[in-house]
Here is the input.
Amino acid sequence: MRILPSGSTALLVELADLEEVLGLYAALAADVPTGVVDIVPAARTLLLVTDPAATSLSSVEEAVRATEPRADLGGWGDLVEIPVTYDGEDLEEAATLLDCDAAELVRRHTGTEWTVAFCGFIPGFGYLTSPDWAFEMPRRSSPRKKVPPGSVALAGEFGGVYPRESPGGWQLIGRTALTMFDPARDAAAILRPGVRIRFVDEDAPS
Amino acid sequence: MTASVTVLETGLLTTVQDAGREGEASLGVGPSGACDRASYRLANRLVGNAEDAAVLEVTYGGLRVRAEGDVVVATTGARCAGCWPHNAPTALRSGDELVLGVPASGLRTYVAVRGGFDVETVLGSCATDTLSGLGPDVLAPGDVLAVGASGLPMPGVDLAPVTDPEAGDVTVLVTPGPRRDWFPDEAWASLVEQPWTVTSDSNRVGLRLEGEALERNRTDELPSEGLVRGALQVPPSGTPVLFLADHPVTGGYPVIGYVTDADVDRCAQLRPGQRLLLRESDLRGRRRG
Here is the structure.
């Protein structure tokens, strides 16, 4: 772990990999150090934003160093089911890229328990990962100018759901009718760091 | 009857702003809020508002509004042309207009009304985030803004003795950022020694600076990481962006340094063409690690 300076109000904690990020995030989110107003997980880092009137960067640094990362992340966050219609424009191509057919891609996607590792890009956009998802999905060579809201997508090692219409280069495999981000809702974002996700095939025979 | 304010003209850009959305960055929601926080807080104090009440942020003057009912207002930040007291509370009678001309120096003027503008909040804030689109729409002629109930006593000052935003070169302090080591010492020296010019594609997201490009000693891709206001991020062009209120919550280019938090407010008053001098803060030696 390295702690890097980020101005007079924040610290950047650099970790070895995403798993370490999630482990430390889980521990810090459960017991937020005094004066820390925001914790922003990313692929290799955690940014701790402080209220300088309430703490000092050195005491936050001490608190972080004294925090034991959570080792067992199974069953940590809430589990949310996201119903999906798997008719994405890129479904066939995405399956080909993973050397399988569309039905197999859907089976793998629904058979994986995902965790929201971090958010970014636009409000409510979560980057989903899973130790059971060992696939690497190339991005589209030319990004779409408009990806419809609710699009369920894959790129790199990540899964995701577009919370609103936006440009995007991820491979679209399906869509959900859920409103992923609604600022008027108590929990504005369905995808918050630590939340576990299962995708459910709406068209599967029950 | 509660008072309101009718927007007649907005100039280049007028938005509703407040203290912003703190604590939502982990959802991908940036802080937004007033760009020049010191001027914003002063405007509210002058009319006896809570320091986080909603105000108007006017970019390069040009705002014209009409009071519908008697109101008390104050303007702070960039001092706009027109026969108008600045940094001072002033009464507007129903039907009176507040007209802001072009400022002599500075870029952003804050207009507070006693009681605050009563605007619907999104995630706890009325701020218009121009990057994410959260918050109320950018103001347009014809908009009517309700004025809230006044709560606190008036401060009992006629005029706040604050200096106007600087014209000409502005000097601010920087400290090394998390990716200082992605740059050779020559690049850091170049950052803190050359004058940077603010370009016209600067906005509430950030100031784009023009100057001699900074070289990197690492060319690999940086996984996106969290950043805050004041970050000096260096994209592949080599010329830094100084992030302001509507900054993205994470960025994929290395942050070489940070402008000291208090100095970021002064940067928010810089106009295109003005020069920014970044000087190394001696805080650097005091940080361990």
User: Anything to note?
Assistant: The mean pLDDT of chain A is 94. Chain A is about 20% helix and 30% strand. The CA atoms of residues 12 and 47 of chain A lie 5 Å apart. The interface with chain B takes residues 2-10, 12, 14, 37-47, 49, 52, 118-126, 181, 183-184, 188-189, 192-193 of chain A (CB under 8 Å).
